[in-house]
Amino acid sequence: MQDFGWYAVPESFKVYLKVDIDVAANRAFNDPDRKETESFKTLEEQKQDLIKRFNLENERYFKLYNVHKEDLSNYDYVCDTSHITQEEVANKIIEEYKKWLSN
């Protein structure tokens, strides 16, 4: 899920972190820190909740600001985090940010 920084600060380096929905659901379902606030019994319930929240957020952004946050052309760098570590994500963002600065 993304924030609104790409729209609010247009001159910034804008990153979109995407993840396969099945990977996202698995990560969320198995995250012990989420168990206090979410009580899904199955991975499929978790997945459907993520899809529902994503769609509601998209609708809200469009109603309020007339923008589609999932439009990848809004971002300077799109990183698929599905099958890489957090450290690899950070390194890729730093690498792309340095390229962006030099332009």
Structural class: mainly alpha
The CATH level-2 architecture is identified as 3-Layer(aba) Sandwich
Q: What is the strand tally? A: 2
Helix content: 40-55%
**Rg, please?**
15 Å
How much strand content do the residues show? 5-15%
Please list the strands of the largest sheet in the order they lie side by side: 1-2
Low-confidence stretches: none
CATH H-level superfamily: P-loop containing nucleotide triphosphate hydrolases
CATH fold-level topology: Rossmann fold
What number is the mean pLDDT?
91
Tally of individual helices: 4
- Number of separate domains: 1
The dominant shape is flat
CATH class: Alpha Beta
Distance between the termini: 28 Å
Can you summarize the main beta sheet? Answer: 2 strands, parallel
Q: What series of H and E elements makes up the topology?
A: HEHHEH
